Write a sequence for this structure.
């Protein structure tokens, strides 16, 4: 009754089913890892954003590499903006996916060290990207700013190529070591995305907070792949029973037809 399982068609179908099961299990495990990574990242971000602001020099110093746990922590600093040495970061988008620049302004602290402050997003000045854009001025004089601490940008982490030969005072990546060499000053490791003072009037559009990654979606995909893996043998069993039943019914019909034929004289 089940000899058809040894035919070429059914052997191939069985092999495909056997390959699908571990593949789907592995995909479910991968989604499980993504769920755990995203959940851990969301927890770190929530803790960092909810922590009490601290003076920036308690967290970073010149040459310091901002760690994963330090990222997004709110820090404060008192000093003055140095607009003469500010640069713009090319090919950055705002919340509406419009392409423009991020404004990176050195912030000179009271002890002479420099903190890089990403003041926010401004639109491009027309089709030309060679001229230095018009940038709204920051507050003059001594001011206290707050922002989310961020690590130096790299091509490996961001996927953005660090192009050379750019127009004057334009960069592709925010990197404290490069800016320290350009400025000839001590620059604190990393930079901050400014959150306070809040923008007023004609000022750069502040960068929105990082928000939460959709970890539950990965959890749902994990369950989905494992259900698919469990469904493969069940589906194969259903097909086998259906084929066996069809063959049995066909055999019974042939036997009935043979019995109904008149005997030869």
């Amino acid at each position: 009754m089940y000899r058809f399982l040894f035919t070429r068609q059914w052997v191939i179908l069985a092999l495909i089913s056997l390959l699908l099961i571990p593949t789907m299990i592995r995909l479910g495990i991968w989604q499980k890892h993504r769920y755990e990574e995203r959940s851990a990242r969301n927890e770190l971000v929530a803790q960092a954003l909810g922590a009490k602001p601290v003076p920036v020099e308690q967290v970073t110093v010149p040459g310091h590499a901002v760690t994963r746990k330090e990222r997004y922590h709110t820090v404060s600093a008192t000093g003055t903006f140095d607009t003469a040495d500010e640069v713009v970061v090319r090919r950055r988008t705002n919340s509406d996916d419009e392409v423009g620049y991020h404004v990176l302004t050195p912030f000179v602290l009271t002890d002479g060290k420099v903190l890089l402050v990403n003041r926010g997003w401004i639109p491009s000045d027309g089709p030309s990207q060679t001229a230095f854009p018009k940038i709204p001025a920051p507050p003059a004089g001594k001011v206290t700013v707050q922002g989310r601490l961020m690590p130096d940008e790299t091509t490996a982490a961001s996927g953005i190529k660090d192009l050379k030969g750019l127009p004057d005072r334009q960069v592709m990546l925010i990197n404290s070591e490069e800016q320290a060499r350009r400025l000839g000053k001590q620059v604190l490791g990393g930079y901050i995305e400014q959150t306070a003072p809040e923008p007023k009037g004609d000022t750069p559009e502040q960068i929105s907070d990082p928000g939460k990654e959709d970890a539950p979606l990965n959890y749902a995909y994990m369950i989905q792949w494992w259900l698919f893996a469990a469904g493969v043998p069940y589906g194969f069993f259903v097909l086998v029973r259906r084929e066996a039943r069809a063959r049995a019914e066909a055999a019974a019909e042939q036997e009935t037809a043979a019995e109904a034929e008149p005997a030869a004289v």
Observations:
- Residues 54-196 form one domain.
- The first strand starts at residue 54 and ends at 55.
- The CA atoms of residues 120 and 206 lie 4 Å apart.
